[in-house]
Design goal:
By secondary structure, the protein is of the alpha+beta class. The chain has one domain: HIT-like (HIT family, subunit A). Helix content is 20%, strand content 20%. It is built from 2 helices and 5 strands. A 5-stranded antiparallel beta sheet has the order 1-2-3-5-4, with helices on one face. Strand 2 and strand 3 form a beta hairpin. It is globular. The N and C termini lie far apart (42 Å). The relative contact order is 0.21. The chain binds guanosine-5'-monophosphate and zinc ion. The site of guanosine-5'-monophosphate (5GP) has 13 residues, from strand 2.
Length: 119
């Protein structure tokens, strides 16, 4: 369930400090340490699921909770007119922290395009 070497497991356990937005039995939400927009926080399952590719049916309740809480937490954080969610997965997705997390990003102004194709 927990990986002792995982920084997000340590954040859930309070061993690494975080600016917490929300916590329940299945998920934990906290502000990103390097925000890319006025609002930028992460919602993670408390279970140590390394990537979205590792998720299975046993994780459906936690994954559903991550999505169903996103709007409420985004509104509380200041997103009054929408926001963006993003889950990076694996090497190709440029995932940096291998504990599944959903970015919630927003602010007063429209965000730049999500994917910039360099040709
Ligand atoms: P990824 O690239 O894996 O989708 O995103 C990882 C995110 O975790 C990055 O946006 C990074 O700023 C954030 N992050 C990494 N380490 C920490 C930390 O110790 N505390 C917090 N609050 N965010 C972190
Ligand atoms: Zn973990």
């Amino acid at each position: 369930m927990h990986d002792p070497d995982c920084i997000f497991c340590k954040i859930i356990d309070g061993k690494i400090p975080s600016r917490k937005l929300y916590e329940d039995d299945l998920i934990y939400a906290f502000h990103d340490i390097r925000p890319v927009a006025p609002v930028h926080f992460l919602i993670i399952p408390k279970a140590h699921i390394p990537t979205l590719s590792d998720a299975d049916a046993t994780h459906e309740t936690a994954l559903g909770r991550m999505l169903s809480k996103a709007g409420e937490l985004a509104a509380e954080a200041g997103c009054t007119d929408g926001f963006r969610t993003l889950i990076n997965c694996g090497r190709v997705g440029r995932q940096e922290v291998y504990h599944l997390h959903m970015h919630v990003v927003g602010g007063p102004d429209p965000l730049p395009p999500m994917i910039v194709f360099e040709r």
